[in-house]
Fold Alginate lyase.
Amino acid sequence: MIRTSLISLCLLSAASGAMAQPSLILTENGVDAIQATKEHPPLFAKAYRQAETRFARSIRDGLIVPVPTDPGGGYTHERHKENYKIIHDAGLLYQFTGEQKYLDHAEAYLLAYADMYTDLPLHPERKNQAPGKLFWQSLNEAVWLVYSIQGYDAIRDDLSPQSRERIETDLLRPMAEFLSTESPETFRKIHNHGTWAAAAVGMTGYALGDPELVERSLMGLDKDGTSGFLAQLDQLFSPDGYYTEGPYYQRYALMPFVLFGQAIENNEPDRKIFEYRDGILLKAITSTVQQSYGGKFFPINDAIREKGLDTIELVYGVAAAYSLTGDKGLLSIAEQQGVTVLTGDGLNVATSVANGDAEPFSYETMILSDGPDGNQGGLAILRMGKGDDAQTVVAKHTSQGMGHGHFDKLALILYDGGQEILTDYGAARFLNVPSKDGGRYLPENTSWAKQTVAHNTVVVNETTHFDGDWERAQESWPTIRFFETSDKVNIVSSTISDAYPDTDLTRTSLQISADDTRAPLLVDVFDVAAPKRSTIDLPFYFSGQLTDTDLPLQRYNARQTALGDKNGYQHLWTEAVADTPDGHSLFTWLNKDRFYTYHSLTSDAGEARIVRIGANDPNFNLRSQQGIMIRLKDSKTARFISVFEPHGTYDPAQEFTVESESQITSLQSTHKNRASLIRIEFSGGEALVIGLAEEPSDKKHTLTHDGRTYSWTGFYKIFRE
């Protein structure tokens, strides 16, 4: 329950006429520290200027509270978003300065919404999502309340009793009820929508001194713990802090988790919310940072690819985490963000950055387990090197990720030289662009982006994993068979047996430091065992310009046709095709200043296709991007060995090119007695040989290749010749 002492202090403050003391994110101690700072450090000063600019613009324009009519990105949608920021900022500026103009403006906006809210019908642009009143979905309503309640909390005790009564009776309490008792399906949902609703209702409860609202938000409508904020913490995060919907939605859900967590800590420290479940909130913040490269989040599942570490959700998260842990690596993230938040935590971060305390954040090779108990697969992140050139491999061996998950078990992304080399499509959505279906997920999100063929993983018989049924997919996940990391080799291997009926898919990815290459090699082995002869495809989508291939490609110059008619294949143009009678093929492309060669070796003869995204896209909703698809026909078992080799330098300014051709001269493989050898020869005469067993065990393996015998014990060994 809320602390009686806090309620008493609020009443005493109001009775004495003292300036209100906030009780949510900004606290009395934070206000005192901010007021005592003669010159704000740059990151805090920037946030302060932004708030003052927003306030000045709002004073100039006057109150604007339109009747809601537009979907995401439309005028009224964006106006109501701007208004909750005005209320929030005006309240905080009042705390910092005590100037009446800030209180008056926040009060005027809150009263205007109080006059409107109770008579509003459900939003006219509502569709499939749970509708709001101010916005087309109730999710945005919850965000509005999370921001606005902070502004109200900052001015509440200095308002007249009449204003408090009107704002609370006609706006805040009705909105809290709308988001909870009147929207039970959303409020009970273990999902980011449910998290925002719980945070909004709970923070309102603290601000109004209402223990009922607080308990409802923490324990659910029935107060039995099956839903509500604590259930969200229990079920949406793995023990490592991985959020089941993936990093994009982890970033979005992070804000209500962090803000409500801070409100709980500031009002009821005895709950020890930041120690709950072995510190899961702090783990969630740091794991969000780990799921990024070059400042952008890994774009798995329904992700907007442009989102990165500078999002406001993580700005709040970094400020909270640094104040709780003192981890100086977080300060380097704050430096990248370029701004902080107007709280005591934000001032703490900004001061430390200004004092030069920042240290590089420690990006690590790891597996972030998935599932509440950490037993539903995981996201493997393999890193090698330092700085912007550090190579990173993302092996998506996670569970489905609920309705926002994509059907791409055992998918792969490669980053190198500061660039995304093997890409993931992310979501087909233009967030808040009215002409693109009001910013909603587009039809192509279902017909393309979620489909298996849209990703760098195996497709059998041109059908999607789990037939595209997310509820069925939600019951299955890969088994991580092996994971090991060292200075020279990072390796992960996983398998899944029900993405297709009676079909085993096994993927083993090795990141290997090789003396003969400028950057590490990625060696990827994908094994497929199907119950009957099938067509098996392995596509890779790459970023860059093709410069070379060793195949006699037949171009489709006069007329292109779609590769198929469903399951995403209808969106792929075939630009060129060639047979691979010996299973070998080679493709080189240029990305920025570095060349990349993809060496492919398959267990049987097949074909290689150059494909491009964009067929059957009448509204131009899809990005145009090339991919390479290796296809094996009429196969029950198949092995795809793929080696990705960074090499060379391209400098158009200085007009020179170095090592534009691959340094790998041969890729061979031998398989016998449930073990394999993969031999990679380089132009300098050196060779790299990978011994790989079919199953992780301590068994000894011996194989002969080209007159040489190799022996090893365990799952794998690297021989350098």
